[in-house]
Fold this protein.
Amino acid sequence: MPTLVLLRHGESTWNEENRFTGWEDVGLTAAGEQEAVVAGRLLADEPGLDLRVVHTSVLARAIRTAELALAEVGRSWLPVRRSWRLNERHYGDLTGRNKKETAARYGAEQVRLWRRSYDVPPPAMPDGDPRRIDADPRYRDVPTSALPATECLADVVARVVPWYDDAIAPDLEEEGARGGAVLVAAHGNSIRALRMHLEAISPAAITELEIPTGIPLVVELDAGGAVASTRYLGDPEAAARAAAAVARQAG
């Protein structure tokens, strides 16, 4: 039975400041690094979990989370595949703005619609804005037409699912046949997109799914690639509290 482990990065500096982050490349806080270390200990303590391949986004907070977690497991040597398709959702012109201040300006319901609706993106980041990533060398091989100025969750699903089908699923098939597992270290919305695809979650239901930071989710798949079970490692109540904290960020 193939095993997929999904891990949202630990607290970032902009998480701490309650700012919309998206594709902005910020680092982890000291607390976020500790979350990643604890995640690694949970992975190391899980009986029979044999991590063999790692996938991450190209953003530093996900990369660092994977590095710290793998160091705790003693598997820093694992092969790693990175893709922009696993990046966080692009928050458009909200990027860098404080979530509670944005809610006060536009109204809590409007911000909730931008944050959690399936198909309503925030306002686009303007052309020429210094926050745009068009010239970032990590995206130099990505067609300009594929680089977003804003995204809704549906857009994230549209870019994440091809990476799952073309890269993650083949690794799961190959490593699962040998009893191995695949780790994906990514972001709240790219993990939501993966779960929506794998668990056949509806657009209405996905708006209520919160992803806690730094807590590994073990997804057991059957031979056909369908989800057989999901469970957070460690204390399930701690995972529920962490998910609730994410939901409160915009007030």
